[in-house]
Amino acid sequence: MIHRQSQVVFNRKTVLELAGLLLVGLALFLATGHPWLGVVLPSLRAGWRSLRTAAWVFSADPDRRRAVIGGVFCLALGCWKVAAMSATTVLVMVVVAKATGQLPRMERFAAVMITLTGGIVLTSLIGLLAAIGARAARIRLWIHPALPEILGDVLKGGDSGTVQPGFNQAIFVLITSLATPALAAAGYILIQPGSVLRAMLVFGLMVVLVIGSYGCLARRIIADHPSQCWGRPGKEEVGEP
């Protein structure tokens, strides 16, 4: 009965948040007159749950250092999901254009590309910052949009939630954070005049660097199970006497 009531409350909150997001989109449309907001909003909706989870981590975790690092990683995951949905939208636009022979409206296509680029850049910047913090604090991360339902009352010393742990989505953030600056640098070198062989060698070096960096960092900051990240902190960690 308790689980059913919590599920009803959760669904009600989700509906209210979605309605609020749609109202924001409508207000922006009425204020700016740009119809492409209807294209961008689904991408923002994709990252909404991760952003909400970030707020929950900030407020619920008694270990403030872990709360900051974990919350920032959830924030980066929200940006990653925005970028992923935008990339899916671009793919759909291209497929539809190929099938119908009609180019998509450039205004909408540009809006999605801006959202995609912004999501990737923010994921990289925020993710790198959080990864450096996790490495410095020796914290292993396990991140998922359904983290509140997975953990339940674990952070309060109680039982875990009813939702089974899925895939650790911190991996997506870490890979994107490492690959984006490396590929951007390699792409810049590739378009410069000079030897093609040199450019390809630099590109290959960047790929090896990303793989090596991921292998080194993942062993230290990526957890295999939520319990390796979100275990109840000791008294000395939360400042209790």
Description of the structure:
α4 (106-137) crosses α6 and α6 packs antiparallel against α7. 76% of the residues lie in helices and 0% in strands. It starts with a helix and ends with a helix. The protein is built from nine helices and no strands. With 241 residues, it is mainly alpha-helical. The protein has helices at residues 2-32, 37-60, 64-100, 106-137, 147-151, 170-190, 196-221, 227-230, 235-238. The longest helix has 37 residues, at 64-100. It has two domains: 1-33; 35-238, no CATH class.
Give the structure's gist in a few sentences.
By secondary structure, the protein is mainly α. It has helices at residues 2-32, 37-60, 64-100, 106-137, 147-151, 170-190, 196-221, 227-230, 235-238.
Fold blueprint:
Layout: H1 2-32, H2 37-60, H3 64-100, H4 106-137, H5 147-151, H6 170-190, H7 196-221, H8 227-230, H9 235-238
| Gyration radius over CA | 21 Å
Strand content: under 5%
Poorly predicted spans: 1-10, 233-241
Secondary-structure element series: HHHHHHHHH
Indicate the overall shape. flat
CA(first)-CA(last) distance: 38 Å
Q: Number of DSSP strands?
A: 0
Number of helices: 9
Instruction: Sketch the major β-sheet.
Output: none
Percent in helix: over 70%
| Domains, number | 2
Mean pLDDT: 79
- By oligomeric state, this entry counts as single chain
Structural class: mainly alpha
